Amino acid sequence: MLFWHEVKKIVRSVPWLLFVAAVSIGLYSQGVFRFGEERLEKPQPGENYGVKAAEIPEQIMPAALEALWAEFCENDYVTYPIGFIRHVKLDEQEQAQMAEILSELTGIEAETLLSGRAGEDHENSGQMTMEIGGNMQMEPDGDGGLIVSPADKEPQENADELHPAVRADMDYAQFQERMQQADDLLGGGSSYEAASLSGFSSTPLTYEEALERYDLAVYSDRITGGYARLFCDYAGVMTLSLLPVFLAVILCMKDRQAQMEELIYARPISSLRIVTVRYLALLTAAMLPVVLLSYLSNIQVWGLYKGIRLDYLAPLAYDFGWLLPGVMISTAVGMFLTELTGTPAAVAVQGLWWLVDLNQGLRTVSSGYALFRLAPRHNAGIHSWFRTGDFQVHAADLVKNRLLFAGLSLVLIALTVLVYEKKRRRGKNSGKGTFKRALSGLGSRLHQSET
Predict the structure, then answer these.
(1) Mean pLDDT within 275-293
(2) Which of 168, 354, 355, 429 has the most C-beta neighbours closer than 10 Å?
(3) For residues 425 and 434, what is the distance between their CA atoms, to the nearest angstrom?
């Protein structure tokens, strides 16, 4: 059977062995094989149950303003435009714009805010004053040298004494709008983005809330579902949104280098069947180690919860419902672009997509269910399985996301069939004489043999 022939060809190849090794190492580094080290315990009255994210304007507004003011004073703003940390330093005009935003937030004149930045001498812009003793200081003399003089212990007007507060008449919607302006000025990716402001507030969990979470984990997730979700979170973002493209590209390029086109083109089999069988074989080969590793991860906790009814099919359900669409899109990108261009360009395309998606989700890791997220996230650390209620709220969003990527994968495979068929017809036409000569030569040799 053609399908099993393709599967055997893939799993016996070096690229597949490297794929399995990379997936295993990537998951091991994230601790998915150490779930059995800690048991989920039922909360008891009087304990510390941790905190939960909460959008509390009374907490967010002063905390976010304080953070922005501190970065404004240093002119050193931390952002994550594509996830990697970036320190932004604004020029004079941009700092003036930021001062205007702070002015609208606080009601303090922008000039006062600019002159009140801690640690700066605005009359000697670009110069630095350094204390070298209790009553002495060293500063540039303007001619390239340094002078030592008595330190000015009198505080400058507003300097180091300015502690801006949010205007009393500012509501939360206005505050969000101004903070979004600050984020836009910084190029995006800061903590001041309207959608990220909730990170400045939290509230303690009560005993009743902690007990409700525990009951959901036990009776709704049946324990194993939570662990399976955490495995999928790590597996999707670390390996399975990227590595399958390598497997698809390498194997497709390998067939091309072995000059298999003419042999395949000559077979009496449709392009749809050839591409579909290869695609299904790649998916099977990619998912086989994933399923085994998910059970290896999950089985560790089974002995910890004796007496509790566990869902032994949870890893399998999450593997195919959560991870398979990611493998599908990565494989489909690899097949389509390789067939279209004849180059490994798909690796660069998928790699860039994965990198952007990964880093855009760093600040939304606890609820990354956006429709166009390549690798959905549901990870809040080792206790992520304790967020069954959060998952139930976002389950419909996850379903929409996974269906979207599964559908997009099928569209790419359909396009791959069209490209393959076009090349196949061209190959048949260009190679017609070659095949005729080959068949004629074979017939002559058979005739001579019979004679």
Answers:
(1) 95
(2) 354
(3) 15
| Contact between 346 and 336 (Cβ < 8 Å) | yes
311-317 CB contacts, 8 Å cutoff, 24+ apart: 311/221, 311/222, 311/223, 311/224, 311/225, 312/224, 314/221, 314/222, 314/224, 314/225, 314/227, 314/228, 315/224, 315/228, 315/231, 315/291, 316/291, 317/228
Are 274 and 261 a contacting pair, CB within 8 Å? no
User: Do residues 129 and 146 make contact, with C-beta atoms less than 8 angstroms apart?
Assistant: no
Q: What radius of gyration do the chain's Cα atoms show?
A: 31
146 falls in which pLDDT band (50, 70, 90)?
very low
Structure tokens at 241: 């949104």
- Can you tell me the distance from the alpha carbon of 320 to that of 126, in angstroms, rounded to the nearest whole number? 59
Q: What would the two tokens of residue 220 be?
A: 């709704």
> Sign of torsion, CA 180 181 184 190?
negative
pTM of the entire predicted model: 0.71
Three-state SS at 409: helix
| Total residue count of the chain as it appears in this document | 451
Which helix (H) or strand (E) element contains residue 10? Answer: helix 2-11
State the Cα–Cα distance between residues 357 and 219, nearest whole angstrom.
Answer: 33
Distance between CA 323 and CA 317 in Å, rounded? 10
* CA pseudo-torsion sign 151, 154, 158, 162: positive
Whether the Cβ atoms of residue 140 and residue 126 lie closer than 8 Å to each other: no
Secondary structure percentages of the chain, helix, strand, coil, to 5: 65, 5, 30
Beta partners for 377?
368
**pLDDT for the residue 380:** 61
Task: Indicate the residue type of 166.
Answer: V
Q: Say if CB 306 and CB 39 are below 8 A apart.
A: no
Paired with 51 in beta bridges are 204
Mean pLDDT, to the nearest integer, of 210-225? 90
Virtual torsion, Cα 261, 265, 268, 269, nearest 10 deg: 70
Residue 199 is predicted with a pLDDT of: 81
Q: CA–CA distance from 172 to each of 97, 101, 330, 335 (Å)?
A: 21, 15, 41, 49
Q: Rounded CA gap, 433 and 112, in Å?
A: 85
Distance between CA atoms of 336 and 334, rounded to whole angstroms? 6
pLDDT in tens, 240-265: 999 999 999 998 888 766 555 555 55
